[in-house]
Design a protein that fits this description.
With 295 residues, the chain is an alpha+beta fold. It contains seven helices and nine strands, in the order H-H-E-H-E-E-E-E-E-H-E-H-E-H-H-E.
Length: 295
């Protein structure tokens, strides 16, 4: 009896699944567990060539090209000024009776000497000029030469007071004038139009000035000179005070601002190149980004 009882009450441990089932169970648990754990760092794939990178990267190249071009322009302007200065050192030419207009550009800034009488009736005043702090005008008067031909002479600066009172020096006898050959000077966008019919002039238009002085029918040639003044400052002040036009100094006054352009473009090229490198470094550092931690 007791033996029978022991047989029915004997402890039997529960049966477990097979080894393969156990491995499947635990592997599933651990795989699902570990799959949900994020990595601290994860590489992010980005395109390096983007429209923004292309635009930003091309700016320093573009600025460098412009700086190099301005460097070439600077050298060209320096050579031109040196060439014109050499022309000014030559002996003055005597203008021939018949002037070949086609060769005048080759003699620009060349010193010349002419003789004749002033045609005061066709004097032209160009306002808004300043010399030594005095506001005034430039006085352009035709000169009738010995052979009867006429050319245009810019006699120089005249104070506003003498211009308004028409109280400037008007020689009637024959004069000898030393000047420099010039051509029409281009005006900028802010220069008003000339009104020859009203006697209003703002910029030197040789053809219009020639027509105003009588034109071809009066044997007026489109030849324009600027009278030279080689006196000192005291003489210039005396002339201004007494209504005597003061000519220009015998120097080349071509504007040469290419050096400032060179500095500007090269500086912009260096600055934008630095900005582009900083952009590359920042993109490289952000290529590996930190993901948020899960608790």
């Amino acid at each position: 009896m007791f033996r029978l009882f022991r047989q029915h009450t004997r402890f039997r441990p529960p049966s477990f699944a097979s080894n393969s089932q156990v491995r499947w169970l635990f592997s599933g648990l651990f795989s699902r567990k570990t799959a949900s754990v994020p990595a601290l760092y994860k590489p992010r794939k980005e395109r390096w060539i983007t429209p923004t990178m292309v635009v930003v990267g091309s700016i320093p190249v573009f600025c460098f090209v412009l700086g190099t071009w301005q460097m070439q322009r600077l050298q060209w302007k320096i050579n031109l000024i040196d060439e014109l200065q050499e022309k000014l050192q030559l002996q003055p030419l005597s203008l021939p009776k018949k002037i070949n207009l086609s060769v005048i550009p080759e003699f620009i800034w060349r010193r010349v000497v002419v003789r004749g009488k002033w045609d005061h009736a066709h004097t032209m005043l160009f306002p808004l000029r300043v010399r030594e702090g005095v506001v005034g005008v430039h006085l352009v008067t035709p000169l009738i030469r010995e052979d009867g031909s006429t050319i245009l002479i810019n006699r120089g600066f005249l104070s506003q007071e003498h211009a308004e009172n028409h109280a400037w020096d008007r020689p009637e006898d024959e004069v000898e004038v030393f000047g420099m050959l010039r051509t029409s000077q281009p005006r900028n966008a802010f220069t008003p139009d000339n009104h020859p019919e009203e006697g209003i002039w703002y910029w030197y238009d040789v053809n219009a000035m020639t027509e105003y002085a009588g034109g071809e029918q009066s044997n007026v040639q489109p030849v324009y000179l600027e009278q030279i003044f080689e006196g000192h400052a005291g003489q210039a002040s005396y002339c201004i005070d007494h209504g005597i036009p003061v000519g220009r100094p015998p120097t080349v006054d071509l504007r040469n601002s290419h050096l400032s352009y060179v500095i500007t473009w090269y500086s912009l090229s260096a600055l934008t190149a630095f900005m582009f490198l900083r952009l590359l470094v920042n993109r490289k550092q952000s290529n590996v980004r930190r993901l948020p931690r899960y608790g």
